[in-house]
Queue: 2 jobs
Job 1
Amino acid sequence: MNDNTNMRESVDQIVAQYGSGKESVIPILQAIQQEFRFLPAPALLRVCETTEITPAKIESVASFYGQFRFEPAGRHIIRVCTGTACHVKGSMIVYDAFVRELGLKKGELTDSTGMFTLEKVACLGCCTLAPVVKVDEITYGHVKPEETRLLLKDFLVKSVKSNNKKSSRHIDLQGVQGEIRLGLGSCCVASGSYEVKRSLEETLAGTGINVSVKQVGCVGVCNQVPLLEIIKPGEPGVFYAQIKPEEVRDVLLSHFRPSGLFDRMKTKLVHWLDHIVEDDSPVTFNRYSADQRDTPLCDFLDPQMAIATEYRGVLSPNNLEEYRSKNGFSALSHCFSKMSPQEVIDEIVRSGLRGRGGAGFPSGKKWQLVRDQETEKKYIICNGDEGDPGAFMDRMLLESYPFRIIEGMLIAGYATGASEGIFYIRAEYPLAVQRVKDALEVCRQEGILGDSVMNSRFSFSIRIFQGAGAFVCGEETALIASVEGNRGTPRLRPPYPAIQGLNGKPTLINNTETFSLVPWILRNGASAFSSIGTSGSKGTKVFALAGKVNRGGLIEVPMGITIRQVVEEIGGGIAGGRSFKAVQIGGPSGGCIPASLADMQIDFESLSTAGAMMGSGGLIVLDDRDCMVDLAHYFLSFTQSQSCGKCTFCRVGTRRMLELLEKIRSGQGSHNDLIHIEQLAHSVQGGSLCGLGKTAPNPVLTTLRYFHDEYEAHIQGRCPAAKCAALICYSINDQCIGCTRCSQRCPSGAIAYKPYEIHEVDPDKCIKCDICRQVCPVDAVSVA
Amino acid sequence: MKVTIDNLTIDVSPGTTVLQAAGALGISIPTMCYSEGHTNHPSCMVCMVKELGSGKLIPSCAIPVHEGMLIQTHSSEIREVRREALELLLGDHLGDCEAPCRLSCPSFMNIPLMNRLIAGGHFAEALKIVKEEIALPLILGYICPAPCEKACHRKSVDEPVSICMLKRFTASDDKRRMENLLTFPEENGRKVAVIGSGPAGLSAAFYLRKMGYSVTIYERQYMPGGQLRYSIPEEKLPCWVLDTEIDGLASIGIVILTGQEIDAKRFEEEIMPGNDAVILATGNPAENPILSFSLPVDVEGKLFNHKTFATGRRGIFGCGSVIKNQQMAIRSVAQGKLAAVETDLYLTAGKQKRIRFSFHSAISHLLPGEAEEYLQESLHGNRIEPKDGWLNGFSAEEAMLEAGRCLHCDCRKPVSCKLRILSDEYHANWKRFTGPARKKLTRLIRHKLLVYEPEKCIKCGICVEITANYKEELGLTFIGRGFNVHIGVPLGNTLHDGITRSAFFCVEGCPTGALSFLDQEEGVEYRMRYRMTGNGWEKIGHF
C-alpha cells in the first residue's frame, strides 16, 4: 500500500516536471524507468489518470522503443555491444560467455540473485575498443570471453570504490608550469582515462607540481587512448599514448619539478620506495613528440583534415571562453552583422554542402525550402540519433564540440527563420547528453540562447530530446513522430519535413556533422569548403574507422580520399598480419566494398554506384577471417529487428530474407535460395516507404555481388572464413604442449584434462565459443 | 490538376490521391489497409501502381497526384509486386479459410456450418446446407468413408467430430426430409435424360431438377440405385434407406424408368432427339454399352473431359465411374453435382457461373496448445456414441452435443476477407514466403460479440483508429515493433474491456478475418441482426 502511494507520488512528480501533454510520453517513460529501473504497470496507469496520455498511447509507445523494460531488471545492467566492430571481433561469443557466467536459462535476462541483467546494445560507439561491454556506467574494452568472471569482479570492486572521496588539489594560478591535456571522450573513458586523471590529480596534489589539467574532447586517436599531452611553454607538445595510471607519476616527474625542497625530497623518497616495492614499474612509455615525424600518431593524423573536428584534442568541451578564443561564435556574429538570412543560405548552397546523415541531400536546398515557408513557427532539429552499429561520429562530435553544433544550429535558425531547436540524441550516449546539456546552460547564461541571441534581433531556444532506442528514428519523419510522442513510424514523403514537419510546421533536420561544418564554412567562405573534395561531394567527411585495422579511430578526411589511403595510411594496414578483404561502409544501410575496389574514391556517387552508401559514416575494415555471409546476416538481423513494422515488404520481407540467410549460413541453403533472396531483396527495396526498408537489403546485395563465391561455398557446406558456427569444427593440433589451459576453461567440458599430453576437442560437446583458441599459448587450436 | 491514368486523363483538385483519381475514372485498384477517413495507410502495399515519370512503384492510396502525373495501374510488373505483397502477408497469416473437413470432402460440403446449425437446434437449416452439396445425405450417412473426419482438427485433442453420422441425422427425420423437398422450383420445360441410377446419376438428376429441368432417369436393372443397391451389403446400407431417399427424388418429379436397356440405336433414336441434354452415369464402361455409342475420343484417347465432364458430342456429359472407376460413393455424388452444373452451363449458354474453388490458406496441423484456443468455444469430451446403436444413429440431443464439439476452425469471414479475395484474384501462393517456424495460433474470445484472431491480422491499424474515434476508454493499440508488432488491448486488459461501443465498426472495418462476430456466418443466406443499445451493439436475431 505504502509502496503504491510512494509510486504515485513519484509519478506525479515526474508528470509535474515533464508536463501532462501527449508529447511528454517518452520523457515521462524515461523518467519512470530511471526511477524504478523498469516500467511498473501501476505507474503507467497513474500516468494515464493524470495526463492526456491514453492507455493505448502509452502501451504503443512503450512497446515500440527498445529502451523500455516491462520486467524488473537486476541491480546492475551488463550491456554487451553488438555493433559491427564488436561483432567482427566476436561480441556474440562474449555475450554467450556472460550467459554461461550468469547461469541464464533460455529466455532469461537476469541472473537468479537479481544482481545482473544482461542486454545486447546496438552500439556503444566505442568501436575501436571492440568488443566492448558496459556494466552500468563502467565501460570495458577488448573484452575476452574467458574474462567475464574477472570483469564482473572488477566491476563490483570499482562500483564500491567510486563512492570513495576523490583526491582534490588546490590550483595555484601563479607560476603555472604548463598544461596537461587528457582526452575524455567515451572511448578514452572506457580505456581508463578517469583512472589516469585520478592518478594525475593524486600525483599533482602529492608533488605540488603546478600545471593546469585540461579535459579535452575526443582526440580521435582512439587506438592510442588514454592519450596524455604535455605542453610546456616554449616547447613542442609531447604525447603519451596508451598511458596507464601507474605510469603517470614517472611521466610527470620527467617533465616538471615538484615545488619546494621538502616536496621534492619526499617525492624522490616515495618514488624510490615505489620502485623497490613494485618491480613491474614502467620502463618505457609510448612517448611521441608533437614535432616528431613518422610516429603512428602522425601517420594517423596527417592525411586528415579537421573541419567538423577543428581543434580536436585542444578544445575543452564545455569551456565557452576557449571556444570563443578559437573563433567560436564568430561565424554567427558575422551572420548577424554582415549577412541577410538569404545570403547565409546562398553561401551554404555555394559551398556544395550535402547532408552528412547518409543520403547526401544538398543542405542549402533544404534550408531554402524551410526558409520559403511562410509560417510563424519553424523548427531546427539536430539529428544525433546515431543508431548505426559501427558508427560513433555523432557521439564524438556532441561530446567534444557541443558549442560548434549549437552555433551551426543557430546559424541555420537565423537563415531559415526558425525560433526553436531540438537536439535529438540517443539515450545510449549519456555523456553526449550531459555535455550538450551543460553547453546549452552556459549559452543561456551568456545570452547565446534565448531572446535576442548575442544582442541581435534573433531569438532562439534549444532543448534536448533523448531518443529511446529505435534505429528507425534516424529517419527524419520517424524522428519527428518520436518527438511528438508517437511510435517512431516513418510516414510517406512528400510532404517533406521542410514543409510539414514537427507539429505540422516547417522543420529543418540536419545531421550533427552537417551542423558542425556550418560555422567553418561561413568563417572561411564557401569556396574554401568547395575546393575540398570531389566534383559532387564537397568538403570533408568524418568516419568511424574500426575493425581489423592497426589504428582505428575517429577520422575526418577530405571527400575523394581512396579507401586504400584510409585503410593503409591512416589505419596503418590490417592488424595481425592478415589480409585486407573488404570495407563495410555505411553500416546496415551501406554495403561491403571488396579490396579489389580499394582505389575507389570515397564520395556519395562512387559509393552508391558500388551498391554501398555513405550512411552516417561507419567504416569497418574486414580481413580474411571475416565471413561475408555472416556479415550480411549480422546487418540484416539488425535492420530486421529495427523495422518499425508498418510496410509489408519490410516487416515480413526482411524477416524472410533473414531466415534464408540463416539457412545458408548453417549450410542448409540451395541455389534456389540465392535466387530467392536476391529477388526478395529487390522487392523489399522497392516496396518500403522509408530509408530503412529501402536500404536494408544493401548489405545482402553487395555481398551477393562481390562475394558470390562465398555464398556458393556455404551452399556446399563450407565457410571459407571459418566463422559460421554450423560449418566449422575446432581441433587441437600437435603443437599442443599439454598445458591444460583449454581444458580448464572449456565451458562445455569438450576438452578432457590431460596434462602434458596433446588435448582433444569432442565435437559433440563443443559449443564453438572460441575460448580454447584464445587461451592457447602456442596456437595449437585450429578451426576449419 | 491533370493526371493521366492508364492513358485516360482527368482533371482533379490538388490533394486528390492517385487511388481517388483512378476511382473517378472507373479504374479499380485493389486495397486492403486503406479505408476512407482513416490515416494509417499505406502499409499493405497491394495498391501499388507505377509512376511512369520516375519509373517507381508507389502506393496509390497515399500519394497525392501532381500536375502531369502519368500512372499505369496494370502490368505484369505491378501484378507481380501486388502478388508478392499478398504472399508476404499470407506467409505471416495463420488460419484455415475453409475448415479442413470441408476441403477434404469431395463434395465440398459446408460441414462446420452444418455442425453449428445442429448444435443450435436448427435441424432443417442444417439439412438445407447439407443438400446444397450432397444429394443423398441419408445414404451417404451410412456408407461414406468420411475423409472429412480424418482431416478434422479435433482429432489432435481427442476424436474427430462424427460428421458423417451428423449428416445422416439431418436427413433421418421423414418430416424434415419431405419439407426440404417442397422448395423445388416448377419445371422449366427443358429436358435432361440421365442414364444410370447409381450415386452419380441420382446426384446429377437431383441438382438438375433443383435447377428446374425435367429429368428422366433410365436404369437397366429392375430397381434403381446401381452400385448402392448391388454392391453394398444390407447390414451396411439397409435397403429401406436407399428406397427412402430415392422415393424422395421421385417425389420432386424426377421420373425413374427401370428395366430400360439403352443401346446405341435407342440412344440415337429416342434419347438424343427427346432431350436437350444427356448425362451418362452408366458406371464402369467395360460393363455397359456406351462404347458402342458414337462418341469421339480426344487426343489422349479419352471419352470425357476431366474438368467439364463433356464428351466430344454436344449435349452429352458423363459422371461417376463411367469416367474413371470410383471407390467412394461420395466422389460419384460430387461428380454428379458438377456434371449437373456443367449441363446447366451448356443449356444456359454459359450464363451461369462455373463452380470453382476459391483461394484458401490452410494450417496443416495444430501445434501443441493450439487446440485449446479453439476448444474455448467447443464442448469438451470424447465423441458421443449413439445410445441406440450405430444403425439408428443420433437422437436430437446427442446430435446437438456431438455437433457442439466442432472447433469452428473455418474462418468467420470467408467471403468478405480482402486478403482472400485478392489472393484469389492474383493467384497468390500462400506457401511461397512461409518461415521455418510458424507462429502460434491464438483466438481471443473474451467478448460477448467478438472474436479476435491476431494471426489473421495484417496490421493495417484501421481498428486502432476506429476505437480511438469512438472514444473507447482502452480501445485497441499497436504493441511492439517490426515483425512482432501486433494489435491488442493496452495494458493487458481483455477484449471485453477494450471494445465496448465500437465492436460493429471494428468488424466491419477489419479487412480480414482477424476481427469477426462470434456467430458471423458468411456466404449463406442467414444473417444476424444487430441493434445499438446503451452498451453498444447487441445481437437481436439469429438466422
Job 2
Amino acid sequence: MATGPTNTAWTRAALPLCLLGVLDTEEKSYGYALLSRLADAGIEGVKAATLYPALTRLEEEGAVEIEWGAGEGGPGRKYYRITDEGRARLHRDRTAWAAFTGAVASLTRTDEPQSAPPSAHTSAHPGE
Amino acid sequence: MAKDRKPTLTWEREADKDWAASVEIRLALDHDAPLGLADEVLTEAHELVHEEGRPARDLLGDPHTYAQLVADERIPEEHRARIDSHGLTPGERLTASFVSVGISAALYCAFEWLTDGLWIGIGWPSVTLTATVALGVALTGATIATWTAGRLPGARWFAAATIGAVLAGVGVTSLVPDGQLFTVPAPVLILTCLAVVVGAVKFPDTTLDRWFTPAPVDSDDSNDDAWFTRLDGLLRGRHAMPSAQAHGHIREARHHLASTPGDERASDVFGDVEVYALRLSEGPTRTRRFARRQFYGSCALTLFLTVMLIDNLSDPDPSPFWLAANTCSLAAMLWILVNEWRESTTRTTSDPAGPAGPAGSAGSGTPTSPDSPS
C-alpha cells in the first residue's frame, strides 16, 4: 500500500502516533530504521526532512528519550526509546485515533457494494 | 492578495478587545505576518466568541501562544524559516539597529538644545566619541545580523571588531585636546540623525539580506560539509539552540546520509537548509531557548546601566536628570531580568498539554505546519 499525493497531511498528522507505535514494539530504534519500518508498513511518503523534526519534537515533549551508540568509523548513531510518558500518550492517542477514523468511516460509508477499488496507479508520493 | 478594507470588529468585552490587540501585535512584531492574516484570524475568533458567548482567552487560550500557533499553521515555512525570534530577517535587524540609534541620537540632540541652547559646541572629544558610537552601533548591528543569519565565525569577527573599535575610540577620546572647534545649530544635528533613520529605512532590506546570506555551494565534494556547517550555524545562531543539541542533530543527519544508498546530497535528503533548521527548532522548548538568550542580553545591558549609575554617583556634581533616568532604567531592567529568567525556566503552554490551537489545530505533538515538498 502506498500513500497517495492527497494523503500528505494525514501522514504528517499520524506520524508521531506511528513512531510511538513502532518504538513501543522495540527496545530502541534509530531514524533510518524507523523510516524503513514506516515504509514496510505502507507509509512511504515520509522523508528524513519530516521524520527527524517529528522525533525531535517527541523528545522535547518527553515521549521518547535518546541514547547515543558508538559509531563504526563514522558518527555515532542516535537511538530513540519510548518513555512511560510516551506509552501513556500512545494509548491515549490510539484510542482517540480509533474514534476519529470510526467517525470518518461512518460519514463516508457507502451502501454500494461495488464501490471502486483503490486506484492502481496510486504511487508513493514524491516527497513531503 | 487583494487587501480589502480592514474589518471593524466590535468586541463585547474589554478583555476580548485586549486579547485581540495582543494577538494582532504579536503576529506583526514576532512573526512578520503577511498583510491581512491578523484581520482574517481575528474575524474568525470574533465569530467564535460571539457564537459561544465565552471570553476569547477561555476559548482560544493565551494570546501570545495563539499568535504562535497561527504563525505555525498559516505562515508558510519558507517565510518563517528566514526570520528570527523577533520576526526580522538579518537585513531588517541591521536596519532596526540604525533606526534605534538614529532616533536615540535625535532625542539626545533635542535634549541638549533644551538644556544648553540652540548652538551646540563641537570639539575633538565629541567628534571622536560620536564616531566611536556610530562605528560601535554599525558593528554591533552587523554582529547581531550575522549571528541571526547563522554565520557564526563572521559574527565573532564583527564582535571582536566592535570591542576593538570601542576601546580604540575611548582611548583616542581621552587623548585628543579639549576645546571647541566650531558650533552647530541643534536642528542641523537632529536632521542629520533623522537622515540616518530615513536612509536606513529606505535602503532595501533584500540587498542587506543578500549580503548576509552565503552563496549557494556548487555540487562538489565540499557541498555536504557546507550544508551541515550552515545547518549548525542556523540552529545555534537563528534558533538559539545549545551547541550540544545542534551538534547532535548534525551527527544524526550525517549518519542518516551515510546510510542512504546512492550518492544523494544532504540538500536532496533534507531539503532547504533554512526550512530544515526551522523544523528541528520548532518544538516546545523554543520559547524557553529564546527567553534564555534574551536574558543574557539583558544581563549585559544591566551591567552597562550599573556602570553608568556608579559613574553618576561618583560625580561630585551629578546631573539630577541623568541620575533619575539611570536609576529608573536600572530598576526597569532588573524587573525585566526577573521576568525573563522565569520565562526561560518554566514550561510554556505550547507543551503537549497546552490549550487547543486555532481552528483545526492538530492534537498533541503533531507537526503544525503544512508540509512542503523538499
